[in-house]
Each structure stands twice: as structure tokens, then as C-alpha cells.
């Protein structure tokens, strides 16, 4: 039977790719107010795709921000129910001038599809819908019960879906959730992700003098908002990247020795990682930790953007009155975001330089999470993955954050299968984001295999 | 005779103000390429004003950037020659939303004229021209020889005028230069400035990874260009504002005890300075120095602007690949800019964080300067000032930089009279820059008195 869905995917692959391209042409940037109509359009595209695939009870659910899309198919009594989750919104494409082809005009190059959202997450969530289409086309039915919940705020905090999941545990009841928003550890290597970091995203605003001042007339005696912000943030980490905020490491749980050992067996090449993925002169971070530990099982503090004072071409000699920074902390499983936020705010209070007023605004927060690799659905997913890709499935973590996984655990009491088909160099959130076209096809096949084996 | 020029100013004051308003309406922002035509127009306005006032040999001198305007009147054999300098270019007006009235639509409010350039320096340089007009209208001639050199690049480095002065010492030969680009120490208090700080203006560019990276997937191991820049700059000063770059204080000459004492007699009120001028919670800087020392006779390091990563509304979780900052150092007399630039570059090399490549670009540099208050022209200027304002003239320094004063000293071997009529709260380089209208009139009168007394 699975062989038949594989054949269906191969037979229809051009159309399956064209449909994804149509989806990618919609600039559904959820964080920019001016793209709100595009985000709407993307929700409608998702609803129609679910309908066309044979899902039922398709709903576009309005929220305070961007709509959710729900659909289900519940005609397999006695069989398990899988809740498929994904997001149809994308990150802003800037800096635009670094894109080889425009971010919202999908282009094929070297076996890849280049577009914002191709890997994160439109290309991946769309595979779930196409797996349903393939199964129904080949078998006339579905092997288990399915619910779909697709959101449009994953890249800007995900507040609406979190509250919806909290309020609708009955409607969303399932045995397991399936999320494809992660990557294969390496090309061709089936990979399931068993751990995620959480994320606290904040904005800091520093105020110095009441207006921009002439640096000649006041320089030496007046506080500078940009410098005050710099002074504060520089104290947040030491030269090795160790976070200096008291209490931040208190609740960090070290991975089990077996897990660390399994990571050491992964085909990780530090020199290649530095050269091909990071592309800087050297790596940074805690020297007594392996690189995989640093990005998977250690908390971070990063500044994502900073702005203040005069930044156009040329020279202007002001002491800036205002400066802002976007700052995040990634948390590992067992760290409580509320506790970390409090610790951060207290640290800001203690360390704000003289003459500066500092405001901290928390934009979003979500905890880190671990999944038990012995759960039946995970075992079936590992087998389906291995069947299609022809290699044994490996278990990894991701340093990224998928807050919904925590919401599913907390409110629906179900584990989540993180079965992603991206590649490490896909350039998520970066210019020239791409998704390997073959991975798109193999993803549809693998998900169809998983549905079939989990339902049998 | 002087009383007659005073009367002339009073009689024509409405027209004298209207003409200045026309000048201020030209947005001659020298640092912005898009305003080049406006800068041209301002040069033509100056040339016509000089012509109309009776100056001769009026020339608009093209340069690599913005034109110089020259004029002279040399029909007083045996009398001294004064070289009048000023600038017709202005700083950018941003942040625009903080202006009460538009920056290039001059508006009178509470005895002040509000517009970008009203005090710095259009309103002040224009007084020189109007003093010539008044003297010629009242006496039919001029009491001494005059040369005018007006530039359009003072706010963006002044490269053209510096090279012109260096190449034309004969043409510009004079006994003394007159510059009105400073402020009265307090309203109604005649003030001559005898010292200026120099300025080195630099751009720093930090490069981390080869592209913006996902902070979840790489955070903890990849260098962050914004954070690298922050880390470096935070090391440049300690918490008291003491510059940490080796050698920076080596050549600093302390002011004479008598000068420091005279500063202590000035009507300086630290609480008012903090509240009305700076408007922050407290002042910063070297605790063992008075505020006037900090802003007049101590070197500074300031960050004027910083930009990098994602700074629009909302959240984006990138590790930025690039970040830039505009950084300046103010230098006191006797410090050598070249030596300080070398020290800064070496310090950057030694302190650049791991994984970051840092580029330093020097946009401009000029030394600090002291003027001998015993020079004859200075004494005459002090008397003319006292005559018109009715109080004894005080001698102060300015923490600002007027690089041309150094060029005149070096190439023409003449001192410069810094006779400015601004006020400390004029908001130079800030939103809502203003010039007190009465100071404009008194300035024209004082300059006419000075020309007359110096020529007699």
C-alpha cells in the first residue's frame, strides 16, 4: 500500500511542487502589520488545500491577531488520532539585498526550492496535507483519525494558538501530535527530534538625556542612551558566552550520559560547521561544552537587533536620547520562563548604568521540552522514516523553540513527534531560505507511511 | 558711529530677520547626498548676500564635495584684515517627529527663531554679512579690510575648506579670523571662547557569521556581530566614563590653575544643567572632575549611533551577521589625532571578541586648540562685546570642535576670535534648534562695533 502512495507522489510531483510554489508566493509575514492581508490570504489557501485533500469541518477561526485553520477526518473508530500542526506564517525577508532571487517568487536551483517559508514552515506543513491527498487517492480512505491545527503567528509569539489549545482540549483531543518544523541531522539521515529549547523574547529601551544632545557641548557629563544599553548588555555574558544573570543556570538539567554519547556518534564536523554553516573566523561559547551541547542543551542570551542615534550615511555628533535592543534567552527543559524573566528584570535593575532609565518589555515566552523516545508513536515514526530514507533513524535535539509542543503537553497531555525534513543549511530566518525538493517528496511519502503504520 | 550702526539694526530688524528666514528655509544638509542641490542653493544665497552687502570679488568655488564661497573688501590700506569664517550647511533634522514646527520652516516663538541651522551656524554667520551692510549703509565705507570664507561641509568633516586654506595662504592672509559658531555662557553675558576640543569621527563595522543565522539552531556557538560590537565598545570606558584605550590621556595638558578658578566663578548650576539642559536622572563622567572640566578640558569617547540585526516592530530571532556604530573621540589641546587614531585601532585589534571581524573607518579628524586671550584683537573683541551687552566679557572654552580654527593656526598663523551669540539651550544638532532673535540683532551690532574699534 505504502509503495502505492510513494508512486502517487512520484507521478504527481510537478503538480505537488507547483501547488507549494503558489503557497510560497503569499508574503504571509506575521510580525509586520502591513502584511496582515497576506496572512489572511495564506489562511484561506490552507483552508482550501485541506478541503481539496478530503479533510472535513474546515474552519478559519478568527483570533485577536491572525486566524487559525482547523480541519478533521474522524471516520476510523478504534484507531488512533493524530493532531497535525504547522504554521503558514513566515519571518520577514530582510535584508532583502542579500537574496539571490526575490523571497516571494519561488525559484528552483540545484535541486532546491528558494523562497521565504520554503522550509520554515510552509513547505513542511504542506506535506501533511499532501500525504492525506495521496492516501485518499490511492486507498479511497484514511488509516486513522486526523485533526489539523495550522496557525499564523508562530513567527511572532503564537499567542492565539496557545490560548486556543488551552480552551479546546476536547476538540483537539488526540493520541499524539505531529509537527514537521525541524531538520534532518544530515542529508538522507532520518532524524527525530526529542528536545527543544524554550524562548523568552524581550525588547529593551534605554533613555538617557531628554533629547539628542550635541556631543561636543555635553560629551563627558551627559549619559548616552546607546552607550548605556551597550554597557548593560555587555555585562550579560562573559567572554566565553557564560550568562552572568544570577540564577539562570539553577534549574538546567544536564542530558543523560547516554544521550550525550549518542550525540558524539552523529556525523558532526566542527570545522565544516564553522566554515559552511556559520562562516565566521571561529566559534564562540562555553569552551568546556561540545558544540552540540551549546546549541541543544545550554541556555543562551542573544541580541537580535539594536538601534539608536544617527545611523545614516555620514557623520552626526549627537549623544542619543533613546536606544532599543531585541534580546532573547533560549531555555532548556526544566527552566521556568517566568522565573528567568524575573531574574533578568532584577539584573537589569541592578546593572543599569548611571543616568539611564531602562525599560524591559517581554514580547513572548515559552518553555523548553523533552519527548520520550520510547513512546509507541515515536517508534512507528522512526520506522516509517527509516523505510523511506533507507537508513536507521537518529534521535537529536534542536536548539530552536516550538512553543506549541509545550502547549500540547500541558493542555492535551500528548507527546509530539518532531519529524522534520529540512536540512541544516536551509537558511531559516535568513536570506535565500531554501528547501530541498527531494526532501519535500520524501516527506510526503514518510508521513503517509507513518499514518498507515500507526493506524494498522 | 557705533551708535548709528546699532540704530540701523533696530530700524531694519524685521527685514534683517526675514532675510535670515529665507536662508533657513534651504535644507542644506551636507551629510545627505539627496540634499546636494539644496546645499548648492545655500551657497548661491550666501554669494548673493555678500554681493548685496557690498563685498567684492565674490566667488563660488567648486570642490570635490560642496562649494566654498569667498568674498573680500580690501580698500583700507594700513588697517588690519579680518578673515570672517562661517558655514552654511546644517545637521540632519532627524528625529523629525520631535520637532514642534518643521525644521526648515522658520517660526518665531517666545522671542526665539526655531529652525535647523538658526544658531548653528546660518543665523550666526549671517550676522557678519549684515554687520558689513550696516557699516556701509551708515558710513559709506568699511573701517578695515575684510575677507569672507564660508563653507558647506562643516557638519560632514570640512575636508574641502581645510585643503583650500592649506593651498591658499596668500589669498586668505589676515591678522585674525572671526568665527561666530559658539554660545554666550549665559543669557546677556558676553563670552569669548578660548579653547576647543578636537574630533575624530569613526565608523566601526563588525562582521560575525556569513549571513544572519537562526538563533535557536546556532545560538550558543556562533558569534553575533551585534553582541561583538557591544562587547568591544563597552570595554572602551569604565563605569565612570574613563577611557580605557592605552595612551589616550598621555598628552592631555591640564588647564592652568587660574583658568580653572575663573571657570569656578561662572554662573554654573549643576542641578539646573542636569534638569534643563541634559534632562536625565543624573550626570555621568569622571567623578574627580568638575562638570565644566569634563566637557571642556577632558577627552571623550561617544557612540553616536548603532545599528544591526532586526529592529522593526515585532520579533525576529536572528544572530546578526553585521553591525555598525558611529564612534567619536573628542580631544583636548595638545593631543595628536593621528596618535589617538593609531591607539584606537590597536586597541580594537587587541580587544575584538572571538569570531568577530572588526573594521574601523576614520571619517574625519581635527585637533583641539587654545587661543591666547592677550592678543590685541581678542581684547578689542571683548570690549566691543561688553559695550553692546553692558557686562564684562568672560572667557570660557567649548567642548565642541571647530576644525577650521586649527587650519587657520597651522596655515595662516593667525589666532581666531570665537565670538558666538548662541545660548546653551539652543539645541544644536537636536530637534527644535532655535536662536534667540535679540541675540541675532546684538550679534550684528557687536560685530560692527568690533570691526570699527579694531580698525581705528
Strand order, sheet with most strands of chain A:
1-2-6-3-7-17
User: What's the CATH architecture name of the largest domain in chain A?
Assistant: 3-Layer(aba) Sandwich
Number of domains of chain A: 2
Taking the sheet with the most strands of chain A, its summary is: 6 strands, mixed
- Percent range for β-strand residues of chain A: 15-25%
State the helicity of chain A in percent bands: 25-40%
Under CATH, the topology of the largest domain in chain A can be stated as Aminopeptidase
- The total beta strand count of chain A reads 18
Structural class of chain A: alpha+beta
Mean pLDDT of chain A: 95
The top-level CATH class of the largest domain in chain A is Alpha Beta
Most extensive interface, residues per chain? A-B, 102 and 102 residues
In the CATH hierarchy, what is the superfamily of the largest domain in chain A?
A: Zn peptidases
Principal-axes geometry of chain A comes out as: globular
Number of helices of chain A: 14
As residue ranges, the low-confidence spans of chain A are none
| Subunit organisation of the chains | homodimer
**C-alpha Rg of chain A, in Å?**
23 Å
Distance between the termini of chain A: 12 Å
Q: Please, could you describe this protein's structure?
A:
The structure is a homodimer of 456-residue chains. With 456 residues, chain A is α+β, with helices and mostly antiparallel strands. Chain A has two domains: 2-196 and 368-454, Aminopeptidase (3-Layer(aba) Sandwich), CATH 3.40.630.10; 198-252 and 299-366, Alpha-Beta Plaits. Helices cover 35% and strands 22% of the residues of chain A. The first copy, chain A, contains 14 helices and 18 strands. Chain A has helices spanning 2-11, 13-24, 36-53, 122-139, 159-167, 215-218, 225-234, 257-264, 270-278, 291-296, 337-351, 376-389, 403-412, 437-454; strands at residues 56-61, 68-73, 81-87, 107-109, 112-114, 145-151, 176-179, 191-196, 198-207, 213-214, 300-309, 318-319, 322-331, 357-366, 369-370, 394-398, 416-418, 434-436. In chain A, the strands form five sheets. A six-stranded mixed sheet of chain A has the order 1-2-6-3-7-17, with helices on both faces. In chain A, strands 11-13-9-14 form a four-stranded antiparallel sheet. In chain A, strand 4 (107-109) and strand 5 form a beta hairpin. In chain A, helix 4 (122-139) packs across helix 14. At the A-B interface, strand 9, strand 10, helix 6, helix 7 and helix 9 of A face strand 9, strand 10, helix 6, helix 7 and helix 9 of B. Strand 11 (300-309) of chain A pairs antiparallel with strand 11 of chain B, so a sheet runs across the interface.
